[in-house]
Amino acid sequence: MTCSTQRNAGFTLIEVLVSIMILSVGSLALGTLLLRGSRAGTAAAAVTYQSAALTSEASRLGAIPFTSLAAGTTCVDVTTAPFKHTRCSVIVDVSATVRRVTVTVTPTPPTNLQPLSASFERSISGPAVPPLLTP
């Protein structure tokens, strides 16, 4: 007489539940990682826009002729996307031939970026007023 034992083929309910639990925990961890990556990318883009705004204004003021730089403070509110900010330029007469230029870019809330500033000095050799312009 032959006795045959039949093996159960397939997965049990417990095995299926354990595998679904492992899959859901892994998906939750990947979702959290994706959210953190997205926030880091947004913050990096904001820093890039802030640096570009500062560089652009400093380059513009560096290209203006020395005699056209008037001492004083000028602030501009930029309310357009993608980077809303306030850009202030302060020009101070250090002497008759030297002017100090300070540019500050302050992001508009809701952002946690700190104001970024750059300062440089412009000078002219010789008299501040060109001799041809004197009466």
Keywords:
alpha+beta; 135 residues; four-stranded antiparallel β-sheet; single chain
Question: Explain this structure to me?
Answer:
By secondary structure, the chain is of the alpha+beta class. It has one domain. It has one helix and four strands; from the N terminus they run αββββ. A four-stranded antiparallel beta sheet has the order 1-2-3-4, with helices on one face. A hairpin with a 6-residue loop joins strand 1 and strand 2.
Number of strands: 4
Shape call: rod-shaped
Cα(first) to Cα(last) distance is 131 Å
The radius of gyration over CA amounts to: 32 Å
Spans of at least 5 consecutive residues whose pLDDT stays below 50 are none
Q: What's the tally of helices?
A: 1
Largest sheet: 4 strands, antiparallel
Mean pLDDT: 88
Strand content: 25-35%
- Give me the secondary-structure category: alpha+beta
Strand order of the largest sheet: 1-2-3-4
Helix content: 25-40%
Q: What order do the SSEs take from the amino end to the carboxyl end, as H and E?
A: HEEEE
Structural domain count: 1
Q: How are the SSEs placed, and which strands pair?
A:
Layout: H1 13-63, E1 72-78, E2 85-93, E3 98-107, E4 116-123
Antiparallel strand pairs: 1-2, 2-3, 3-4
In brief:
This protein is an alpha+beta fold.
